[in-house]
Amino acid sequence: MRDLVVAMTGASGAIYAVRLLEVLLTIGRTVHLVISPAATVVLDRELALKIDLQKFSLSQLLPNENDLASDSALRLLRPAQHQPLDPGGSAVLSEIPHGRVIYHHYQDFSVSIASGSFLTEGMVICPCSMGTLASIAGGHSENLIHRAADVHLKERRKLIVVPRETPLGSIQLDNMKRLSDAGGVILPAMPGFYHNPTSIHHLIDFVVGRICDQLGVEHNLFRRWGT
Ligand SMILES: Cc1cc2nc3c(=O)[nH]c(=O)nc-3n(C[C@H](O)[C@H](O)[C@H](O)COP(=O)(O)O)c2cc1C
Q1: Tell me, which fold does domain 4-215 have in CATH?
Q2: Which of 42, 52, 62, 97 is the most exposed place for a label (fewest CB within 10 A)?
Q3: What are the boundaries of each domain within the chain?
Q4: Residues 127, 162: Cα–Cα separation, whole Å
């Protein structure tokens, strides 16, 4: 199994990325992680997580229970805080993550994922800001996230972007169309409700599960239609 790339940018919905990372690590995947400066602002605002891009450690993004701020929305993800959708669902967090994170600074173009010769199984930008979307659609590789996305497109590898914005303007829609035409998958952070969610956790896992579907990662994060 090849490595995956996960990039976090400054759109709302940082909790989707944290959960995605938890899931991928729990099932033992190796993840190359890049975080934009704007993403750190959102992580702080939404989840009370303080990220140091120069001295990153995984515990900044996935703190254990004791280190979590009392008002952090991340507590919503902890098993004790929610009722699982069904006995088979959303049990992933109780397992010990055994995957690996390889962190890259967003300005470092010398790393593996900046080159098409480094093989990966795909890249996810979650959440994806309109700014990052525009940069990729316009081919402006101004940081490592844009460059790695560009590489995935040119190498015809999976690129999944998870935009979060509403309403959407014509420029943003045009950029999404452009990216989709170039082979990218536009997977908006738009949870469905047909699986009868009863907590925010189920809504988060719906989106994360749909990302996993696109990556070809098996999961039981939500109950599928017709099952
Ligand atoms: C709290 C907060 C929430 C934001 N939410 C969004 C959002 O949902 N969608 C978006 O496109 N930009 C959002 N922004 C603006 C982006 O962070 C901003 O455009 C930034 O330049 C994006 O940079 P990046 O793509 O390099 O991360 C938000 C900013 C802040 C501070």
Answers
A1: Rossmann fold (3.40.50)
A2: 52
A3: 4-215
A4: 5
